[in-house]
Amino acid sequence: MNIVFLIDFINSKVRKGSRVFDSVIDAGQNRFRPVLLTSVTTVAGLFPLLLETSFQAQFLIPMAVSISFGLMAATILTLVFVPSLYVVINDMVGIFISQDDESGLSEIESS
User: How far apart are CA 22 and CA 30, in angstroms?
Assistant: First the structure.
């Protein structure tokens, strides 16, 4: 869910006229703390279950481990990979659009 807020924040800054790279940097700075705190508190809430030794908890410990490590991996992806991918995709789209514009103009001018 954190990634939705991050992308929405980037998109809203771009709609207001900011450059994409600046929007991604600003979104990373503004959303870093909420994303990190959400993940840390969830993992911290599952930590007592990881330390439990009772027989009943033995069935829940694998679930708590998978949720904790999955959430940590998703947090890293949210804070590092997705903003980087957003900039790369935007650059690629810009390259393809400029190539399409150049080829379209030459066809119109030759007519």
Answer: 12
C-alpha to C-alpha distance for 13 and 28, rounded to whole angstroms? 12
From first to last of its 111 residues, the chain has per-residue pLDDT tens of 788 989 999 999 999 999 999 999 999 999 999 999 999 999 999 999 989 989 888 999 999 999 999 999 999 998 999 999 999 999 999 888 876 665 554 444 444
CA–CA distance, 80 with 72 (Å, rounded to integer): 12
Q: What is the DSSP string of 11-70?
A: HHHHHTT--HHHHHHHHHHHHHHHHHHHHHHHHHHHHHHHH--STGGGGTHHHHHHHHHH
Judged by DSSP in three states, 63 sits in helix
SS3 78: helix
Token pair for residue 77? Answer: 């992806």
